[in-house]
Amino acid sequence: MPAEGRAPHVASWYAASAGDIPTYPSLKGHCRADVAIIGGGYTGLSAALSLSKAGYKVVLLEANKMGWGASGRNGGQIHPGQRQDPDWLAARIGEGPTRDLLRLADEARAHLDRLIAENGIDCDFRPGLIHSVHKPGWVEAEKRHIDHLRKKWGIEREFLDRDETARRISTDIYHAGSFDPQGGKLHPLKFALGLARAAVAAGATLYEDSRVTRILHGARPIVVTADGEAMVETVIMAGNGYLGGLDAETDARVLPINNFVVATEPLDDLLIPGEEAVSDSRFVVYYWHQTPDRRLVFGGGETYSHAFPEDIAAFVRPHLARVYPKLANVPISHAWGGTLGITFNRMPFIRRPRPNVFIAAGYSGQGVMLAPFVGHVIAETVGGAMGRFDTFAKVPVTPFPGGPLLRWPTLVAAMTWFKLLDNI
């Protein structure tokens, strides 16, 4: 996908409510370091923090501002577990490796809590995630699935009947739901900026407006920007949906798509009395939560072209009105879009293509929980601890069908089909 260019943060509610947003210099001239990290999102910032604490000299190169991409624009939802169901994983990689991945997911969830607590990051964290079922024919399957997760995989969720679901989220359009106490929500940009401050405090050097244009691979790679270059021992590519053109293997497996979010003006009603995050069972998922000042932050609708809709609020409003008909005409204070990276099987693409190069991308909507942990795991691996990285890296991630020219129309056709199924 073409780069959006050097820019300040988009006019999101997150940017408006993040408080002081620091500015970091751009890279000018030549520098040397142990590690160069490409991308100032959760993966890159977490890796910079862990590596700096371990004594490495780290430079991080961000094309725009820290947290500018998906890390600062997403729905703020914390989804425990892996992106795919355990049975799906077990059918493809075996039960043992699946249990290893579930253990890593548990570690990722605990790591998120530690990052927030140990670094004093004020990011409006609230626990709890409600998953709502939008088709009546799926209710019994949801009951069976919750029971199976508990018995087979030791994953605890609470089934919510239709009345309880409606009580918890103040809409009666859903037929059932489930509650995951390990899920939650946070202010994604505050979290990213908090990681940046912690990384700097630990000794990392952060550069903004420093888009990487190429990497000269070798025993000591050189990472090149428009105005400078960094000679290092190790490169970590952590740009997720914005890595296009830097690595052919990643380009084949990580596809950028656009997602859109609105924030309403503060509401009189507390729609979610337990303050949980909420998502639903659509393939093109709806997700939402209320902010501390009772705005509804609601995400719905995706596009697969390079351009955003001219009127994002008008694009998202029908989706919001489907969930909350009484909010069909509610004033919308902020509307924004963002680009995330997805893979064909929705599992993250975490690899070591060269001895001194690491790639982590394609979190497919699971990045709030997984990306900070993956950054930490890569930092461990730079130091020689391979075990946890290898568990992630063994998960197969196939290229998108159609190659560079046809993967976009293939994806559009598939997603259009799934959108139709959502409405049946």
UniProtKB/TrEMBL annotation:
InterPro entries: FAD-dep_OxRdtase, FAD/NAD-bd_sf
A single GO molecular function term of this UniProt record: oxidoreductase activity
Gene Ontology CC: one annotated term: cytoplasm
UniProt entry keywords in alphabetical sequence: Oxidoreductase
Annotated FAD dependent oxidoreductase domain residues: 34-380
Any Pfam family the entry gives: DAO
Xref: PANTHER family: FAD DEPENDENT OXIDOREDUCTASE DOMAIN-CONTAINING PROTEIN (PTHR13847:SF281), SARCOSINE DEHYDROGENASE-RELATED (PTHR13847)
Protein name, UniProt field: FAD-dependent oxidoreductase
